[in-house]
Amino acid sequence: GLPEYSPAVVIGTGYGAAVTALRLGEAGIPTVMLEMGQLWDTPTADGSVFSPMLSPDKRSMWLKDRSEMPLASFLWIDINTNIERYAGVLDRVHYGDMSVYLGRGVGGGSLVNGAMAVTPRRSYFEEILPGVDADEMYGTYFPRANTALRVNDIDRGWFEDCDAYQYARLSRKHAEKAGYRTTFVPSVYDFDYMRREEAGEVPRSALDSEVIFGNNHGKRSLDKTYLAAALGTGNVTIKTLQEVRDIRRGADGTYRLTVRELDETGGVVARREMGARHLFLGAGSIGSTELLLRARDTGTLPGLGEEIGQGWGPNGNVMLGRANHAWDLTGTLQSGMPALGIDAWDDPDNPVFAEIAPMPAGVELWVSLYLAITKNPARGRFTYDPASDSARLHWTAEQGQASIDAAKVHFDRINGVNNTVYRHDLFGDTRAFENRFTYHPLGGAVLGEATDLYGRVKGYDNLYVTDGALIPGSTGVNPFVTITALAERNVDRVLAEDIRR
Ligand code: FAD
Question: How many of the other CB atoms lie within 10 Å of CB of 325?
Answer without folding.
Answer: 11
